[in-house]
Structure formats: C-alpha cells, structure tokens
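Researcher: Quick sanity check before group meeting.
Model: Go ahead. Protein one:
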Amino acid sequence: MYSQGAIYSGRNRRATVRTQKAWRSSLLLGALMIVSIAINAAIVLATGNGG
C-alpha cells in the first residue's frame, strides 16, 4: 500500500511538471501570435494610410 502511494505521488509530480512546461510553451506561442497579429495590423494600417 505505502509503496503504491509513493509511486502514485511521484507520477503526479511528473505530470504537474509536464503540464507546467506545456502551459509555459502555450503561453509563449500565444504571445508570439498576438505580437505577429499586432505587427500585421500595424503594417496594414500604415500601408492603408500611406496608399
């Protein structure tokens, strides 16, 4: 019983670390997407105003 519980807690720890890494990567991807969208919008606005 005790050994099973220890193994389970260890698995949980690994899972939380994995989810934290995934959350960070997804956050980075979202930020990059937002930045690229903002740059595209700025270019469109600049070209629209210039043209």
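Researcher: Fine. The other one?
Model: Protein two, sequence then structure:
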Amino acid sequence: MPSAAEKMAGVLNDMNVFRDFVQQAFRGIDLVDGKPAVNMGPFDADGKKTLYGINDDGKIRYDVRDKQPRMGE
C-alpha cells in the first residue's frame, strides 16, 4: 500500500499534467446552442472542426462542430 507521501506525489503529478493540458488546449468560452462552452481547440488536422466541452444542466458532454461565436460577441 502506498504511503501518504507517495499518494500525494501521484496527485501532484496528475495536477501538473492536467494544468499543462488545459494551458495548451483552452481557447476560451464560446456559445454552443446558446450555452457557454469551453473551446478546447481544433479537433482535426486542418482546423475546420473545434472540440467543445459543454455543461448541460450539470452533465458534461463533448461536441465537435464548426467554430462557434465567442461568448459576448
């Protein structure tokens, strides 16, 4: 069984990986179907499709679609 220090080291490593991922992938908040959606950047090699993370009444879902307008525009 891992020690508390080993568990914490694993948690910190996971947090660093997640932070790096978000810093590289996050492109802002756009509107998808009138709801705020996290723009996670291009989904395809030619950049025509964008990956969105959407909080749909407490349920997270993902959608790939053409770039949507920025929130507030």
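Researcher: One line on it for the slide.
Model: The first strand starts at residue 28 and ends at 32.
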